[in-house]
Structure formats: structure tokens, C-alpha cells
Amino acid sequence: MDKTPGLGDMAGMLKQLRQVQGELVKAQKELANETVVGESGKGAVKVTVTGDQRVTALEIEPGLLSAGNVDRLNQLLLEALNNALNESREMAKKRLGPLTGGLGL
User: Fold this and answer.
1) Is position 90 within any domain?
2) pLDDT digit string, tens, across residues 45-95
3) 90 Rama class: left (phi>0) / alpha (psi -120 to 50) / beta
4) Which of 53, 58, 62, 63 is nearest to 39 (CA)?
5) Contact criterion met (CB below 8 Å) for 36 and 87
6) By the 8 A CB rule, do 9 and 17 touch?
7) What is the pLDDT of residue 1?
8) Which pLDDT score, from 0 to 100, does residue 41 have?
9) Alpha-carbon 57 to chain mean position
10) DSSP for 30-97?
11) Is residue 47 included in any domain, yes or no?
């Protein structure tokens, strides 16, 4: 008679967790190589962000660089950065969501 009921189930669960962990690591590496672009001011400011939340590029329309546009430029930069970060989070959520399932991650 087996003195440790459910041990086989535990081994199976551990194996499955290791597999999911490997898939998560792979997906995270792939996300680090994918980018999204957030824009503001009808494309006057563009920010490129990777799936792991790194800003890799910033483009500013030259006309915004005059001294009189500082407040407007600040506002557009914030909008573009937040748009890009939101896009990046959505991309990660779509990619990692099926892997994390009910894990609450």
C-alpha cells in the first residue's frame, strides 16, 4: 500500500511547473526583442518601448524644440511615454497571460 498518496500528482505538478517556467523565460526573452511605439501630438512625438519596458528610441518633431514649446513638449513626451508603456504592458499581458493562467501573476 502506498504510504504517500498523491505523490505522483505532486511530481506531475512539479514537472508541469518547470515546463511553464521555461516557457515564461522564453516568452520574456522574446518580449525584450519586440517593440511598440507610443505617439502623441499626431505623431509629433514618438517613443519606442520594448516588451520588457525599456525605452529604445525617442523622436521629436524639430518644430517642438523651440523655447516657447517647452510646456507643450513636456506634455507630449509624457503622453507618448505613457502610451508606449501601456502598449508594452498590453503586449506582455497578451503574451504571458496564457502561460500564467490562474497563477495571479
Assistant:
1) yes
2) 999 999 999 999 999 999 888 878 889 999 999 999 999 999 999 998 888
3) alpha
4) 58
5) yes
6) no
7) 47
8) 94
9) 16
10) HHHT-EEEEEETTTTEEEEEETTS-EEEEEE-GGGGSGGGHHHHHHHHHHHHHHHHHHHHHHHHHHHH
11) yes
Q: Give the CATH number of the domain where residue 83 resides.
A: 3.30.1310.10
The amino acid at residue 69 is: N
8-state DSSP, 5: T
| Residue 38 belongs to a domain | yes
This prediction's pTM = 0.72
**What is the number of structural domains in the chain?**
1
Q: What is the pLDDT of residues 11-33, one digit of tens each?
A: 888 888 888 888 888 888 888 89
Q: How many Å from the N-terminal Cα to the C-terminal Cα in the chain? A: 39
Comparing 54 with 5, which gets the higher pLDDT?
54
Is residue 27 a contact partner of residue 96, using CB atoms and an 8 Å limit?
yes
3, part of any domain: no
| Residue 72, domain extent | 9-99
Q: What is the amino acid identity at position 60?
A: I
